[in-house]
Design a protein that fits this description.
The complex is a heterodimer.
Chain A lengths: L1 H33 L4 H5 L13 H8 L3 H32 L5 H12 L3 H14 L7 H4 L6 H12 L3 H9 L4 H12 L1 H17 L2 H6 L8 H9 L7 H30 L5
Chain B lengths: L3 E10 L2 E11 L4 E5 L6 H9 L6 E6 L2 E2 L10 E4 L11 H11 L4 H15 L14 H13 L5 E5 L7 H18 L2 E6 L2 H7 L2 E6 L2 E6 L1 H6 L4 H6 L6 E4 L5 E5 L4 E5 L10 E14 L3 E8 L2 E8 L9 E7 L4 E4 L5 E2 L5 H8 L4
Helix pairs in contact in B: 2-3, 2-4, 3-4
The chains are: A mainly alpha, B alpha+beta.
Chain lengths: 275, 355
C-alpha cells in the first residue's frame, strides 16, 4: 500500500513537471516548427505540428528580406558594448560600496537600489531628450550609453565582494598592488561566476530589447535584430508568419549557444555560498 | 634588514583607546615576539607597523625612515596572516610572483626567484596547484614563500601557526626559527601563546590592555618579571600569588620552584627554605615526568609541580616550601614587583613566614 502510494506520488510529480515545462517550451517549439512551414500550412486548420515539407529557404528569405547583417552587427555591438560598460563601471562601484568607508555610502547605495526598481519606460522621455540634445539619437550610442551602469550588477557584485576576507586585500596592498589591480586581478576573478551570470542576463536583455531601439532609432543602419524582425511581419500586406518565425530563429540561436557554454557558471553562481 | 622603533604609539578606535602610547625598540635582525591576551593591542600594533591601520598618535620608524604616512606596499616589509590570505584564483606560482610583478621585476627574474624560494620551502612540485588544492601546512608555506621572495627588511607575522594542528605547529616553529637564523632579517611575531613566544623569540614584548608590561629576553622575563601580570602570564602553570603578611603585599612563587612533602614524612626540604605553607592536596594531575598538585591552604589555593619520586595522595596533609631567592613580592595595588630595600629577613617576615 505504502509503495503504491509512493509510486502514485512520483508519477503525479513527473506529470506536473512535464506539464509545466510544456507550457514554457511549447511556444518555443511552435516558433521553431512554424519557421519551416509553408505559408498555407501555417494558416491550415486543423493545424499541423510537424511541417509537411521542411522549408529551409524560409531562413534564407528572412535573412535576405532586410539588411540583416547590419542588424546582427548592431545587436552584437550594442549587447557587448552595454556589457563592457556595465562591468567597467560595476566592478569599481561594487568594490567601493563593499570595501570603502566613506560619508554618504549608505545613501548612495540606497539610491542605487532605487534605480533597480525603476523601469526604463518611466524614464525614457528625459533620456530621449538628453540624447537628442547631445545629437546621439539614431546612433548606437543612444542604445549603449543609457545602460552604461547597471544597478543590478553593482548589487550582485557588492554582495560577492563583501565576502572576500580583508586579509586577502591587505596582502595585495602589502604586495604593492594598486587599487585598480586589486579590483581586476583579485576581486573580479573571485566573482567570476557572478560576472558570467550577470553578463548573460544583461546580454539577453539587450539582445532581445525591443522598446528602447524602437524609440531611439529611425534608420536601418542603426536598427537591431528585434526591430528588423518585427518589420518582417508586416512586409507584404498580409503577415508572413513563417518568415517572421524564421527571423526569430536567427535572433534566438546566438543566445542559446551562449547559454549552452555558460551553464556551468550560472549554476555555480547560485550555489556560491556552499563552496 | 632594519631596526623598527615605535615612539609613543597610540591607536584609538571610535574613541576607544586600544594602544596607549607604547615605546618599543625592535633591534635589527632580532626575532621579537609581541605576546599578550586577546584584545591587548598586539595585533593592532603589528597592523600599524604594516600600514594597515592608521596611527592615531606617535611615530613608527623602520630603519632611518619615518613611515607613518607611507603606503603598506612601500614600507619594504612582508606579512604572514593567520588565515594565510592567499589569492584564491591564482596558482601557487602566481601567488608567490604577484608581489614581484607589481614591483616591475622582469618575467625571467621572477621565474628564477620563485623557483629558488619554492625549493627552500619545499613547494617545487606544487607550483601549478591552486590554494584550494593544498593542505593547511602547504598553504602556510606558500604564505611564507610569498613573504620571503620579496626579500623584505622586516617580516611581520600575525599568529601564523594558530590554524595548524599541534604536531605541524611544533614543526613549523622549528622551521621558522631556522629560517630566521638563515635570513638574519628582523622578525616581528604576534601570538597569544606564551609557549610559542618563549620558544621562538629572542626578545619578548608582553602587552596587556594596550600597554607594554615588559620587554626582555625569555629567560629574563621568566626569572625577573617586572610585575604581577608578566609573572603570571609567562610560565605554565602560572605563578602562585598569595596575600602576604602585610595587607599591601602579594607573594609569588613558581609551581616548579616549590617543594612539597607530607607532614609526617621525612621532608625533602632544603635548609634554606624560608617560606612554608601547610595545606591539603585537593587534586593532582600526573603529566608523565611531573605531577601537578593543587593544594588548599586556608583560604588560598596553590599549585606545585614536582617530579614523580614521592607521589603524594589526594587529601594528604602537606607542607609546601619555597627558597627565599625564589620568592617574588608585588605591590597589591599596582602589581609592580618590589626588588630593592628588602633584605632576607624582612622578605621572610613580609611573606608571612612559617604558618
Amino acid at each position: 500500500m505504502k509503495i503504491m502510494g509512493r509510486i502514485a506520488l512520483k508519477t503525479g510529480e513527473a506529470v506536473m513537471l512535464i506539464a509545466v515545462s510544456l507550457i514554457f517550451v511549447f511556444p518555443f517549439i511552435w516558433m521553431a516548427l512554424t519557421a519551416f512551414k509553408t505559408l498555407p500550412e501555417v494558416y491550415q486548420f486543423p493545424p499541423t505540428l510537424l511541417p509537411e515539407s521542411w522549408q529551409i529557404q524560409n531562413i534564407v528569405k528572412a535573412w535576405e528580406s532586410g539588411p540583416f547583417p547590419t542588424y546582427l552587427l548592431n545587436s552584437t555591438l550594442v549587447a557587448f558594448g552595454v556589457l563592457f560598460l556595465q562591468i567597467l563601471t560595476g566592478v569599481p562601484a561594487a568594490y567601493a560600496f563593499a570595501r570603502y568607508k566613506f560619508r554618504g555610502r549608505n545613501l548612495l547605495f540606497a539610491l542605487t537600489l532605487i534605480a533597480l526598481m525603476i523601469p526604463p519606460q518611466v524614464i525614457f522621455l528625459p533620456i530621449y531628450v538628453e540624447m537628442s540634445n547631445w545629437g546621439l539619437v539614431d546612433t548606437l550610442w543612444s542604445l549603449i550609453l543609457p545602460y552604461g551602469a547597471s544597478a543590478f550588477g553593482i548589487f550582485l557584485l557588492r554582495q560577492v565582494f563583501m565576502q572576500v576576507p580583508d586579509e586577502v586585500i591587505e596582502a595585495a596592498r602589502l604586495d604593492q598592488a594598486s587599487e585598480w589591480k586589486i579590483m581586476w586581478r583579485i576581486m573580479a576573478p573571485m566573482a567570476k561566476h557572478v560576472l558570467v551570470t550577470f553578463g548573460l542576463f544583461s546580454f539577453i536583455y539587450h539582445w532581445n530589447d525591443y522598446f528602447w531601439p524602437l524609440i531611439m532609432t529611425n534608420s536601418n543602419e542603426v536598427r537591431t535584430l528585434p526591430i528588423g524582425i518585427s518589420m518582417l511581419k508586416a512586409s507584404d500586406g498580409g503577415s508572413e508568419w513563417n518568415i517572421a518565425m524564421a527571423g526569430n530563429m536567427i535572433l534566438v540561436v546566438p543566445i542559446l549557444l551562449i547559454f549552452f557554454f555558460a551553464q556551468r557558471h550560472i549554476i555555480q553562481a547560485f550555489t556560491y555560498q556552499s563552496k | 634588514m632594519a631596526q623598527v622603533v615605535l615612539k609613543s604609539l597610540v591607536k584609538d578606535y571610535n574613541k576607544q583607546n586600544v594602544v596607549k602610547g607604547i615605546d618599543i625598540v625592535i633591534p635589527d635582525g632580532s626575532f621579537s615576539v609581541l605576546v599578550g591576551p586577546s584584545g591587548c593591542g598586539k595585533s593592532t600594533t603589528l597592523r600599524m607597523i604594516a600600514g594597515l591601520e592608521k596611527v592615531t598618535k606617535g611615530e613608527i620608524w623602520i630603519g632611518n625612515q619615518l613611515v607613518n604616512d607611507l603606503a603598506p606596499g612601500k614600507r619594504d616589509l612582508a606579512m604572514v596572516f593567520q588565515n594565510y590570505a592567499l589569492y584564491p584564483t591564482m596558482n601557487v606560482f602566481d601567488n608567490i610572483a604577484f608581489g614581484l610583478r607589481n614591483r616591475g621585476v622582469s618575467k625571467k627574474e621572477c621565474k628564477v626567484l620563485v623557483e629558488e624560494i619554492s625549493e627552500i620551502v619545499g613547494l617545487t612540485e606544487y607550483l601549478t596547484r591552486m590554494p584550494s588544492q593544498l593542505s593547511g601546512g602547504q598553504r602556510q608555506r606558500v604564505a611564507l614563500a610569498r613573504a620571503m621572495v620579496k626579500k623584505p627588511k622586516v617580516f611581520l607575522m600575525d599568529e601564523p601557526l594558530s590554524n595548524l594542528d599541534a604536531k605541524l605547529r611544533n614543526q613549523m616553529r622549528v622551521e621558522l626559527t631556522g629560517l630566521h637564523k638563515r635570513l638574519g632579517t628582523t622578525f616581528i611575531y604576534v601570538t597569544h601563546d606564551q609557549v610559542e613566544a618563549m620558544t621562538m623569540g629572542d626578545q619578548i614584548i608582553v602587552m596587556d590592555q594596550g600597554t607594554v608590561q615588559q620587554a626582555a629576553s625569555p629567560i629574563q622575563l621568566y626569572k625577573e618579571p617586572d610585575n604581577q601580570f608578566v609573572a603570571q602570564f609567562i610560565g605554565s602553570p602560572a605563578m602562585n600569588i598569595l596575600s602576604g603578611f602585610q595587607q599591601r603585599l602579594l607573594v609569588g612563587f613558581r609551581p616548579e620552584s616549590a617543594k612539597i612533602a607530607g607532614v609526617n614524612q621525612e621532608a625533602p626540604l632544603s635548609d634554606r627554605a624560608q617560606f612554608m605553607k601547610r595545606g591539603n592536596i585537593l587534586s593532582r594531575e600526573i603529566l608523565g615526568s611531573d605531577v601537578l598538585y593543587y593544594v588548599e591552604s586556608g583560604q588560598e589555593k596553590l599549585v606545585v609541580k614536582d617530579d614523580l619520586r614521592y607521589l603524594l595522595q589526594e587529601g594528604q596533609e602537606v607542607i609546601v616550601s619555597v627558597n627565599e631567592e625564589d620568592l617574588y613580592l608585588f605591590d597589591q595595588e599596582s602589581g609592580i614587583r618590589l626588588r630593592q630595600g628588602i633584605n632576607l629577613k624582612e622578605k621572610q617576615k613580609l611573606a608571612g613566614g612559617m604558618t
